[in-house]
Amino acid sequence: MAENRASAYGEGVPCWVDAQLPDVAAGKRFYGDLFGWTFGEPGDREAPGAGVWARLGGEPVASLAPKRDGRMPTVWTVYFATPDAEALADRVWAAGGQVVTAPLPVADLGVTALVTDPEGAVFGLWQPGRHPGFGRRHEPGTFAWAELYARDTEAADDFYGGLFHDALFGPGAEPDFGRAAVGEVFAAEMPPHFVVHFRVEDCAAAVRSAVRLGGRVQVPPFETSYGKVAVVIDNQGASFAVLQR
User: Fold this and answer.
1) Which parts of the sequence belong to the VOC domain (predicted)?
2) How far apart are alpha carbons 230 and 211 in whole angstroms?
3) 127: helix, coil or strand?
4) Which of 124, 47, 114 is nearest to 78 (CA)?
5) For residues 218 and 121, what is the distance between their CA atoms, to the nearest angstrom?
6) Residue pLDDT, tens place only, 130-140
7) E strand spans, the chain
8) pLDDT at residue 72, rounded to an integer
9) pTM for the full model?
10) Which residues neighbour 141 within 8 Å (Cβ) at sequence distance 6 or greater?
11) pLDDT confidence of 228, banded at 50, 70, 90?
12) Under a CB-based contact definition with an 8 Å cutoff, are residues 109 and 129 in contact?
């Protein structure tokens, strides 16, 4: 095991990611080749959102889930840990966000919910049961960062700073997410949203691999305060970033 998961994910720490895809089998081929993930081990279909767990070195790192409604976006979602999903969903609502999917148990694995911030950026909540979250992170082929692209960065600071104060500013805090203005990277008309980042050893090489596998480049490699990043779109339309640091 890469780390002590139970102690790693305090409230407001990104603890899981999943992709809602039209074709999970195609997603397994794409991400298995790109990141070296394996699939299909016992228990995989118990991941949050009833998806299939992706593993690296035998540890869970993400899940791929079938889209239940073709009208829903094909997207990667980041989940933030909480000891009480219902209470946190109430705080999201009180702070001006919306509750998209009310807290719902996922077998004995935990409780999940989908919410938005006041500008409409979607993110998940995860109250752990048997599944605390990532078995590996911060290494090649695993989650490394989540960046919020917002229109009103001051409002985003107020919302997330109030919601996840300890994870962002508490003693010893090492945040795994940040924020930027939409227009710094994307077209100004792009809706506010989170971009899930996966760590890679070579950003340019990862982009070439993604294109070879049927993906396309959304934003070519660029430098950030947290590393070299490129935003790509997989072979089904889900956007994510690769991060070299």
Assistant:
1) 13-128
2) 12
3) strand
4) 124
5) 19
6) 999 999 999 99
7) 14-21, 52-56, 59-66, 75-81, 98-106, 110-116, 122-128, 143-150, 177-181, 193-199, 216-224, 227-233, 239-244
8) 81
9) 0.93
10) 35, 36, 37, 56, 61, 198, 199, 200
11) very high
12) yes
Task: Please name the residue that has the structure tokens 């397994």.
Answer: 28
Q: How far apart are CA 236 and CA 192, in angstroms?
A: 21
Q: How far apart are the first and last CA of the chain?
A: 22
- For the CA atoms of the chain, what is the radius of gyration? 17
pLDDT tens, position by position, 30-49: 999 999 999 975 444 445 54
The per-residue pLDDT for 74 is: 94
Amino acid at 202: D
Distances (CA, A) of 137 to 33, 59, 87, 172: 18, 10, 27, 18
Tokens of 70: 């073709």
Q: Which two tokens stand for residue 22?
A: 């039209």
In sequence order, which ranges of 36-173 are alpha helices (DSSP H)? 85-94, 153-163, 165-169
Which residue type occupies 60? P
Q: Look at strands 227-233 and 216-224 and give their pairing.
A: antiparallel
Structure token pair of residue 107 = 């077998």
Q: Which of residues 212 and 72 earns the better pLDDT score? A: 212
Q: Average pLDDT, stretch 221-234?
A: 97
Task: Report how far residue 146's alpha carbon sits from residue 155's, in angstroms, rounded to the nearest whole number.
Answer: 18
| Three-class DSSP category at 200 | coil
Of 165, 47, 48, 43, nearest in space to 103 by CA: 48
